[in-house]
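User: two proteins, same treatment. go.

Assistant:
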Amino acid sequence: MTRLPRTLDCLLRSATFGALCAFAMTAAAAEPAKPVKSPAAKTAKAAPGKPVEPVLADANAEQVDAAERVYYGVYDCEFNQTVDIEKHPKHAAYVNVKSGKSTWLMKPVLSSTGAVRLEDTKGETLMVQIASKSMLLNVKTAHRIVDDCVSPKQRELVAAAKAAKEAEAAKAAEAAKSPVDAAAAAAAAAASGGSMPAASNVATNGSAADSASRQK
């Protein structure tokens, strides 16, 4: 194989390298430049957006009435759990129900039995309130989230009902006891009033009989 002169070989190598460089520069110029993202743009993208405010219907008269019957405040529940019910700060006649780390926006509804139902606006949970206690349910999984919840108002109602029951029982016992005492007193009076005159009559009749026999 015939070797090229050193000078010619260097020229060919230079020409080849130059062509490659020119091709690379042309390809780079044809490719669109990528925008450089600023740190501020990255931070803005990473920041979470604000929660979307729910669109709620205005409360009617029935809902307002039910909201006024809700026992607000902290409930003491089973297993040292708590439930906190408070009025919604923006939506009238709606309530926030908190348990653990969860919060539900609920609509008060008065049932035909007098119980108050707090229905989750997302259809996930349900709070049932009766006179003595309340319970929080998951309607999707059909199980109780927390049970035996008692608010300060419910505790007062339970104590008042217990006192009224005890007073009624005492009154019934007194009423049952009174006829017995009256009958006993009447029997004692009758026995006392009937025996004394009889004894006097006997003594008087006896003395009269003795006097008559002596005169004879």
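Protein 2:
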Amino acid sequence: MTNAGAQINDIRDIKPPVVIPSGWEWVWWVLAALALVAAGLFIWRGWQKRRANLPVEPPLPAHVRAKQKLAEALALIAQPKPFCFLVSDTVRLYLEERFDFRAPERTTEEFLHELGGTDLLSPEQKESLGGFLESCDLVKFAKYEPGELELRELHGSAVRLVEETEPADGGTDILPVSSGEGTSKHTGETPVPLPVRAPQSEIVNPK
């Protein structure tokens, strides 16, 4: 019995075949990786090509954006100080972009002085701009509180300045101020006089 039990214990299941590496598996992995990279590159190039062919909308001209901001400023007509900040900043930014004249950190006096040394605006436009910015500074820094009528007059002065200096037919020529009766070339309306300004001594730290 002992010998029979020992013989039974010696009988074991057949082991599965052992796979002997051929040494070429890494080649297939490399080829698969290269195929994935090539597919990704092909997709990326196709996306870039489609993106390049998409129509690009040109940016809005400076005078169009200025008119939009001036229209939005009317919502602040009941708040003189924020209204004058937005209107005066819009005009200054428009002039800087329209004529490539960069003076963002200048005070009103410095801005007008530097602009006065150029031929970007006509003498009438420079005088109108000076009165406009000084009137805005009275509200912004001298605690002057104008009524709605005066604020609308300032707003109208800003709109007229943009209209008189916007490019003609997409060009870059400066449109001169109308002479004679002093009407706007674009609107035909007689400009409303700027509000009476207080003495310059009342302006505190104008910008």
